[in-house]
Fold each of these.
Amino acid sequence: MKTFIKNKNTISEKDNLIILVENSNNLSNLDLEKKEINYINDRLKKNDEIITINQYNREIIILRPKKNDDTNLYLEETRCLGFKVHEQIKKNSSVVVQNLSEGVINTFAFLEGLALSNYNFEEYKTKKDESKLHTVFVNDSLKEDKLNEIEKIVEAVKITRDLVNTPFSHLKAIDLANKAKKAGDESGFKTTIFTKKKIESLKMGGLLAVNQGSIDEPTFSILEWKPANATNKKPIILVGKGVVYDTGGLSLKPTANSMDIMKVDMAGAGTVIGAMHAIANNNIQKYVIGLIPATDNRPSGNAYAPGDVVTMYDGTTVEVLNTDAEGRMILADALSYAHKYDPELVIDLATLTGSAANTIGHFGIVSMQENARKEHDLLEKSGHNTHERLAEMPFWKDYDELIKSDIADIKNLGGPFGGAITAGKFLAHFIKYPWIHLDIAGPAWVSSKYQYRSKGATGMGVRLLYNFIKNR
């Protein structure tokens, strides 16, 4: 990985500068002309957040985030300030970030926003964009290990964004598995890949049923990070939905343009890979396992059909009422498989329902939990800290009635309302451990630029999981 963020002890008169200040007193150390100081003071009095000084051979940007008594919102506004600055600085250049606020302004948050804004996906462009920042130097008390941590978190988010942005033509189930292995080779986690023969021997009926209509074989990947000094004996398990492309199967998606971005349906898997990369690369002393069932969902003469009954990995029989409710089918097998590890906690992530996206949009993640109240509260705290917030849905037993089947144990469709909740209830049938379900259908992909989260794949969920697992 090319180092993007570096320490720098001295500043030259040719360095482009980004200076974080709390008040005008912080300006006394700057080598500026009197008229420049006066201009800055005038803008500070008018509560400008961004003040730009254009000198002959460099640009100086003075930043003062607006005050906010909510610490988490203040951190987010500082990240967003990184995005705003990135939009206006000279590209194809380097900058030096200097914090003169005596620890009041969070350099970590600013650098996170600035670095995450420096992303674009151009894997398949013949002419590359040369306008990105190429180096951010930091003249600050932030220690080297913190700079490295930011770099590795941003790199992990980039891995997830790249995976989700990659089209189906270049990312079949086996490609996703190999990308997970590559990430593990780079950061230190172990990857085991089950191919179709092994999946058949395990009788993972949900994954095999969804795969029936495809000409490409499924995979089931196990990502394991088990440091010698891990503080948890039982693993935390992350399960990611890996539908690399979703047509809806024989229940072909009816809405116009609804298949245009269905490469995004493996965002849960991409998020797990990114989170595992961040955790291992930063040597977090927690035992963590990732499980990724992967396939595409396509119609063919052999595709599973509405009305079919499928026997799942744990023996449960499922009446399939809609083949477009496929994510829960493959996740159910993975959630059942997770029992073999006697996990401390399982968190699944999936672009599971349009219901979740319609409920809260791209502003957060729909969540549900069983037997994990304390863990969910801690995850919610991490959500506020990273601004990857959770919106917890009710999970009343009344909803259990909606997935009962007349001819099988359960059915894969709940009814006309509460779609995100009944999808969660379907998954809950397969768990007997503390469990949190995260439906990331809303925030995984945005059609226009969403501040430092970019356009297209956002990578939302990686920073959330990293923060939660690191701080448990």
Amino acid sequence: MKRRIAALAVAGALALAACSSAAAAPTIELVDAPEAQELLTAPPTGLVVLDVRTPEEYAAGHIAGSENLDFYAPDFLDRLDGLDKETPYFVYCRSGNRSATTIDAMRDLGFTEVYELGGGVVTWAEAGYPLEQ
């Protein structure tokens, strides 16, 4: 009887571990400009649009509603780590290099839902989507 209870306890613990690890799997997705436009038109609840270019680049033209977090700032990783990990984020830069590095950091920091604009704001503008200043 004790063996049966122990076996049931182990099976239950394994089932719980499997469920919790499946639930903890992050959503990290690369989207193109049309997919990004669709995402921004009907965003997940609480979506934050994060522009990781310099303040000068941001001022020259950015996606409406975005927040600027300068990739080159000395405290960039600390500021990134200070963001709410459960909030969904849409991240972009100029061409996709800085945002790809940012996405890797966000994955390592435990963010749960992140979308990256493939090709950056360059592809956004080339697709004819607006930028605001």
Amino acid sequence: MKAQDIRNSEDFKRCEAFHGHICPGLSIGYKAARLAMAKLDEIRAEDEEMVAVVETDACSADAVQVLTGCTFGKGNFHFRDHGKMALTLFSRATGKGVRVSMKPGAFEPDPEHRDLLQKVMQGQAGEGEKEQFQELHLQRSCDVLDMPEEQLFDLQEVEEELPARARIEPSEACSRCGEPTMRSKLEMVEGKALCRGCLSVI
């Protein structure tokens, strides 16, 4: 499927609406999620049928949430702060998992695009440069959508214990700030149950 067809698809439009704009990272997350779901023969999770583990908190993670149905609120979306464009997706029905990661050198930065991005982020771009950046940003996003998955990603089956299901448990007041806190997140210090926020300022 060509980039324009993908951009016109309902799935991609939902990703764009959730994220707020089209960008290369969103396109990468879209393709990674689609590839992982196809490999596991899974459809979007209504509850906790799948578990997603992302290794970046950048743009690609939003597409993963939209397409897989794995979210922080349902407890089946996990973040490992590794700074990598990588997604591991598990099926609870089969116990199988796959990891999709960017190939080294698969999508090299375009110097002009990178320089304009820095100017825009630092508020130093003029109107002409902003327009030029938007054109390049969209083009780079479409370049990703046009690339074959095998050129973009490494895919491997993974064998590890699935993350635990989401827990629902009573809250207790933190002895210091008084705010209701999940019981399992409280730490006992000198006989007092403290939340992690209060622990960080001791």
Amino acid sequence: MSVQTFPTFDEPATGLGEYSRLRFVVQQILSTVAGATLVRVVAVTNSGGLSPVGFIDAQPMVNQTDAAGHVMPHGVLHKLPYFRLQGGANAVILDPQPGDIGIAVFASRDLSKVKATKSQNAPGSSRMFSMSDGLYIGGVLNGTPSQYVQFSAGGITLTSPAVITLNAPECTINANTTVNGTFSQGMGAAGGAATMLGPVTVTGDVTAGGKSLTTHVHSGVQPGSGNSGGPV
């Protein structure tokens, strides 16, 4: 009668002595411990809006293998809290997006009760170092951005393919300022008067109340008197 055998993770020296057998047992226990791995974001609860920090679903990118060399993907990990740079009410809102690659780390105990209550709590179960208790750090092996803040030896560059909006009750710029583009003042709901210390130098024309500074004419001109009416 033939005996069917199955591949295992043991090595030729596993059965040679107590140390080798104990080493094999320890290795098998360690293989069940989740530490950190690369994941790809599958879904995100937030999409860049003003809201509390959310959660992602993520697919581990390093597959499982058995002793025979068969490869099997992990299942999707659901509701991993993701990292946001935040202190109190001050934050940089930069939510992950599906397709992002990042780092997931896994807690030593069950985080489910803390995730549900956002307060100190007991472990949700006896599980330890499980992929069910992941936290997403994010931001590795990703492509070239099109919207970014760039810090380099030449200075800081802020680039956006769309509108940049600055909301504040007051803004002070302590720098020489160059505007390469059209400039509008006082057009919004909080618009008001503009005050400049001067002098102001204008290369082109200036229009005020529909009247050109360089081409307007005056009414009521009185020859020899030096007096005239207002601009026409």
